[in-house]
């Protein structure tokens, strides 16, 4: 946010808006029943929580979300994988195979604005938690189903994991070194894309539901998310009728647009048009490369990729990455250092990009997580005045409280806890 502000967030100076309460986050008052686990679903519901929604995470009372066991590393006994995508939620640990546990979850869904699930096909119907069953009690519900392969896919009910989707979607085929084997992306990118798609679709359906009172069944699949994420690469294949190749850290259609070795480490240069290319030549003190007709336009440079890359590489090896980065930035040429993950996070935070979100975890202590990629004036998971965000919940941390909110009497809750149909974490 630009401009001077006072400590309470009121704009200062002439013409400032009158002081008043901060607007509520956009999803304040929205209740989400999160019946998902692992990555795509929990990531989507965490984004909704970041925008102010109340998210109740339904988990098995014995083991909880699968990712709770996906360590090391861990903090306070909680796997880092789980911590990455579950902040801002409450945990309800009940066994849906128990009649009282199932009834509680059905009641939760009946009172929710959004229900999101990624159960295996067929399981959700047997539990009476499918869209048709939930919508009978809650016609305005926005119900989101996440699957590996879409509902019309054959064979029906085929399980899907990110690694499978990267292979099946073609993403793996276009990732890796030129002439090398296919490679997966270093993160579960199809899960992340699916979570983003789910959150976007849910938000659209919520707008419609609020306006009309009519709910909607949103379906999101990993395979469709992966295929749509191929964007120009898929379009190139459709236009040419040919399979795209692998270009490693280079670009199929733009040169120079890749990683280059400097004297001590690698940098990435993205000279995406002819003007930027000429500026690059000036910084490199190579007017011959700017004047060479083989490199005059981007199509020329693509056609003579190997010759040009060789010349640029030879020059870049004469100075350090830091020296070249400074010179290229001054000239307005897009450039970046090839950083490790921790280095990248700390560097972005130091540069003012507000990457990290701190919370006080009951077991791990002070916990940092990475913010979502968007920022909103009305929605900050850190709360007012930079207060700590709500940390990822412990398994069953809020079970008794949520069951009471659903109308269960104390003796019935105690009976569920006693027979293992529900679990309440001692910290809660």
UniProtKB/TrEMBL annotation:
A Pfam family the protein falls into: CoA_transf_3
The keyword Lipid metabolism is assigned to this record: no
Region Disordered: start-end pairs: 1-25
InterPro entries with a match to the protein in the record: CoA-transferase_III_domain, CoA-Trfase_fam_III, CoA-Trfase_III_dom3_sf, CoA-Trfase_III_dom_1_sf
SUPFAM superfamilies: CoA-transferase family III (CaiB/BaiF) (SSF89796)
Keywords annotated in UniProt: Transferase
One MF term in the entry's GO annotations: transferase activity
Keyword Transferase: yes
Residue spans of biased composition, Low complexity class: 1-19
The protein's name in its UniProt record: CaiB/BaiF CoA transferase family protein
């Amino acid at each position: 946010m630009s401009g001077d502000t006072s400590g309470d967030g009121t704009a200062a100076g002439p013409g400032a808006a009158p002081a008043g309460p901060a607007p509520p986050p956009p999803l304040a008052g929205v209740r989400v029943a999160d019946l998902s686990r692992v990555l795509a679903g929990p990531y989507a519901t965490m984004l909704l929580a970041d925008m102010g929604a109340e998210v109740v995470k339904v988990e098995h009372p014995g083991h909880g979300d699968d990712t709770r066991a996906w360590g090391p590393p861990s903090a306070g006994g909680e796997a880092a994988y789980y911590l990455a995508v579950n902040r801002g939620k409450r945990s309800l640990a009940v066994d849906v195979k128990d009649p009282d546990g199932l009834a509680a979850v059905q009641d939760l869904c009946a009172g929710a604005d959004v229900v999101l699930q990624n159960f295996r096909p067929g399981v959700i119907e047997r539990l009476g938690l499918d869209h048709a069953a939930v919508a009978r009690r809650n016609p305005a519900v926005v119900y989101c189903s996440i699957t590996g392969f879409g509902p019309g896919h054959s064979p029906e009910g085929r399980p899907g994991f990110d690694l499978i989707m990267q292979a099946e979607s073609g993403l793996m085929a276009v990732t890796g070194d030129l002439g090398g084997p296919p490679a997966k992306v270093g993160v579960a990118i199809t899960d992340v894309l699916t979570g983003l798609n789910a959150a976007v679709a849910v938000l659209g359906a919520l707008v419609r539901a609020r306006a009309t009172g009519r709910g909607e069944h949103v379906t999101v699949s990993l395979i469709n998310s992966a295929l749509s994420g191929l964007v120009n690469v898929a379009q190139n294949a459709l236009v040419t009728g040919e399979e795209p190749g692998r270009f490693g850290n280079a670009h199929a259609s733009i040169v120079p647009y890749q990683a280059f070795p400097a004297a001590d480490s690698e940098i990435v240069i993205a000279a995406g048009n002819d003007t930027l290319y000429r500026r690059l030549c000036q910084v490199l003190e190579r007017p011959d490369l700017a004047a060479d007709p083989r490199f005059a336009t981007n199509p020329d440079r693509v056609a003579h990729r190997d010759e040009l890359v060789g010349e640029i590489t030879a020059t870049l090896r004469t100075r350090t990455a830091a020296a070249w980065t400074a010179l290229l930035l001054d000239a307005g040429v897009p450039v970046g250092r090839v950083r490790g993950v921790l280095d990248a996070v700390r560097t972005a935070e130091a540069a003012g990009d507000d990457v990290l979100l701190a919370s006080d975890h009951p077991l791990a202590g002070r916990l940092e997580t990475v913010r979502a990629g968007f920022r909103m004036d009305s929605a900050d998971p850190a709360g007012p005045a930079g207060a700590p965000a709500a940390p990822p919940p412990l398994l069953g941390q809020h079970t008794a409280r949520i069951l009471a909110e659903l109308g269960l009497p104390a003796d019935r809750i105690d009976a569920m806890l006693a027979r293992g149909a529900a679990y309440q974490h001692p910290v809660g």
